[in-house]
Amino acid sequence: MGKESSWKMLRAGFKGAFAILLAASLVLNGWTGSAGAAEETVTGVEINYDESDYDNSSSALKMYVEDDKVIVNLFASISGSSSKKDVTAEASWKTSSSSVVKVDKGILTGVGSGTATISATYKGYTASIKATSQYVYDEIVLMDGDKEAPAVISEIQLGESLDYTLVGRKNNVSTSIASEAVWTTTSSSVATVDEGKITLVGTGTTTITAKYKGKSDSVKLTVTSPYKSIDLVAPLENGVLELEVGTDDTALTATASPKLGGTIDVTQQATWTSANTKVLTVVKGVVTPVAPGKTKLTVSHLGVTSSIDVVVRTPYQFMKLTPEKELHIQMQQSPVQVQAEVLNNSNISYPVTTMAEWTSSDILIATVVDGKVTPRSPGTAKVTASYKGVSRSIDVVVYPSITKITAEKTTLDGFKGIEGDLPKLTATTFNGSMVDVSKLAVWTVSDTNIATVEGNKWTAKAIGEVTLTANVQGYQTEVKLIVHVKPLKLLAESKDVSIVIGKTVSLPKVTVINEDGEEEDVTSTVVWTTKSDNLVIKDTTMRGLEASSIALTGTYLNKTVSVRIKIEEEIVKLVAEPSQVELNPGRSKTIKVTGYYKDGKTISVGSKVNWSIAQTSVATLTGSSGVKAVAPGSTILKGTYQEQTVQITVVVKPKLKSLQLSIKSLQLSPGASQNISLQAVYTTGNPVVVTDTATWTSSKPGVATIKDGKITAVAKGSTSIKATFDGKSVTIRVTVK
């Protein structure tokens, strides 16, 4: 009806269209002068439409159900403007009967037969127009030839055919519309339909429907089979068809039993299917075994079906390839023959190299013909041999030409009776790239009495040194193998090591105790490992990255040793308390040491300090941070931690047992004097005269005085003279007459 072209004309300026102002009215709905003062002023609205959509006889827009849509626009007249504004999208659209005509932003759709009023409102103004909707045809009818098709076919058999046409009737005029209608089936497993041609697929019930512009017609079908059953005739063993890979095809037949009686061979007409075509295939009853497995074979014909289980076996147990797992060849190498043999179910093996089917996963890398593998370009491919249900694959690695080879290790260590992996071999290619050629190498040993090589392993036979030589494409490299005395135990110089974050220190020194009792420094050959990422290990050093406690494991031959590594922040100063110690022989004192970090924080490190003492005859170390006096004298106690040092003076004095005066009592005349001496008796047993260093006092200086052991009588009477030394005291009674 030209709606699309009309719509384009409408959007381009409505050329050839005309406008009618219909039933425009002002609806205030709370409209205020102040609200509209700042906005444009609308003075009226009108509906515009395409002239071809308007029916003058009914004074209404005309449309058909499920036909092209009718598009109208709403234009508003603006005060002060000669042009009109398209407000179609902003307006509020309504229909008086949504069962007849629907409207959405000016787009009208016919839904049913009748008349409706379409209205549009914008800023208080409303315009409306009448619209009619009707069906294109009064009815549509399925036709079987020149007769109307029945509404129900209670029974129709598979194999029969139906071909309907469809006509639309209007005012007693019929029009063929089969190709324009929409055809559907409620069950495509029973019947399908294409422009009236119905194909019966299976038994059951379905409804075929034709729809056109709101009208429809349908027929309900009940589809049955002309047969009661179908039999799949096969040589079964215990209900299963047994086949073998490599044998001739097996021809099966299918026999159908009609409902009217008798049997019919339908082998050629039936549909044959295999549930797994990788196990077997079937074409018109001819079965071909493909590979070992179990599947189901089905035959179907006009609604009847029959199935059997099929087992496909192989006459062989295994296939073996030589070489078995990998084939390593060089680009310049001649083709290499791979042999294939099979073991049958009677446990007899025989070669099938030339009878097997050979394939390569990548013929750009390697090709294979009758087991003969030819290198084509560097890379890896998989070569597979298949024969009557059994197969085997090997990886083929093709290496490029090289210019030199190097070994990952140039020295190996072992002891009698153990074996180890040969070192990785890396080759330099023509373009300078590196490639692992370990599996391509041929190794020789300078003295097989000391060591041997087999595969990728070496085995130590006797104590000594041998040279292992690797040969690849004519290039050689040598590795020295040293066979040692069997180790019994590894000993680390220290079980606990503290290191500062960021500082590089030497790895721990390690000594091995061998089977013969001899000790040997193996620091340079120990391999150190750790599971922590807070420690960086190099050849001979280590460096801590973050504060933590980790385990460091050293390995030498088949022995290991563990060292606890404490990674700490840096200490910038150590302070000892006390800084000087005085002790009697046999007495001990614990030294407290405080460490200071860069940020001023402190930590007690007394137990972590490495202590040393200058004269062990005076004092010795005790515990983790203690000193014990041995004999009178003085010495220096030195503590070191994180390259910081602290020193403590240690003085050892003998313990005072008692004081002894030279006399116990004294009588003097006034003016007379008398010298007395004082001895200190120590636990060492050697008395010492301390007269001059003792403190002397008189209880009655008016009777007698005392100075440095000299007593002077003053007047008649009695007094006590007291001597004090090192916490002890002694007295003498003096009488003056």
TrEMBL record:
SMART domains: BID_2. Keywords: Signal. It comes from the Bacteria. InterPro entries: Big_2, Invasin/intimin_cell_adhesion. The keyword Ribonucleoprotein does not apply. The keyword Signal applies. This is BIG2 domain-containing protein.
